[in-house]
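Q: How do we represent a protein-ligand complex in a form that can be generated token by token?
A: Start from the inputs.
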Amino acid sequence: MDLVGEKLCEKFASCVNSRPIKRGTRYRVGVDLGTANVVVAVLDENGEPIAGKLKEAQVVKDGLVVDFIGARDLLSRMIRELSDELEEELVDAACAVPPGTGIADSKATMYVVEASGLEVRNIVDEPTAAAKVLGITDGAVVDIGGGTTGISVLKGGKVVYTADEPTGGTHFTLVLAGHLNLPFDEAEKIKLDEKNQKRLFPILKPTMEKVTDITRRHIQGFDVKAIYLVGGASALYGLKDVMANALGVEVVVPKYPLYVTPLGIALSCP
Ligand SMILES: Nc1ncnc2c1ncn2[C@@H]1O[C@H](COP(=O)(O)OP(=O)(O)OP(=O)(O)O)[C@@H](O)[C@H]1O
Ligand SMILES: [Mg+2]
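Then emit the structure tokens for the protein with magnesium ion bound:
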């Protein structure tokens, strides 16, 4: 990942869910509707992250809107809060869908974003958005989100292959909940506390190996020299090494994998 992308993520991380400290003159908004989180990134006229919100929500499943009203209400609230804080109406936005999403499902995502008061200027696919921030044109982008692991192979800046399989952050939490005999929400809290992750590694390793096998299967036949992990679950302690050792290729995990795609979506807004 290049330095520009690292800096963008760092800046965005410092402004997510906190009051913006500066104002811009022209804003571009990126909306990432995920299975676990809805993330909004706001860039100023220089392409610098200036504000952002992240809310947990169950309004989308595997990249597709399942609760239109819930998604609209949540996103409207997030946009209103951001507009109030920036003292300016937010208008121009981009949103994203998993690669290979059909027209009807892409439209559902677009309608949610427009129903929140934004104008959709571009719809991108998630790995292409991520690649913009990673500063790459070739390699595999593996998005380990809440519900699924999405594998995209890029060649010369284009997505040439894509697959999505149902193993993600939720599955790590389910394994932990079963192991510790705790409700899902408590297991999720324990998992997210980075202090615990080293100790949890032996319990979560088989699921990491599953993600690794999924990745291996889908990059087979492509000349992939590096794998870039994005999505919240790729931050898990030990996952990078499990994958790198098993696959024998370079595995890159950005410092803030959760923010790569939302930022790339905002950058895709003209
Ligand atoms: N620091 C962390 N360590 C481990 N897991 C994390 C961390 N931060 C977030 N997660 C996990 O990442 C997942 C959410 O990631 P993300 O926001 O990328 O998913 P999403 O985009 O909502 O889902 P999807 O892409 O599957 O639709 C959750 O399962 C959460 O537990
Ligand atoms: Mg996602």
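Residues 1 and 134 are 5 Å apart (CA to CA). The chain has a mean pLDDT of 95.
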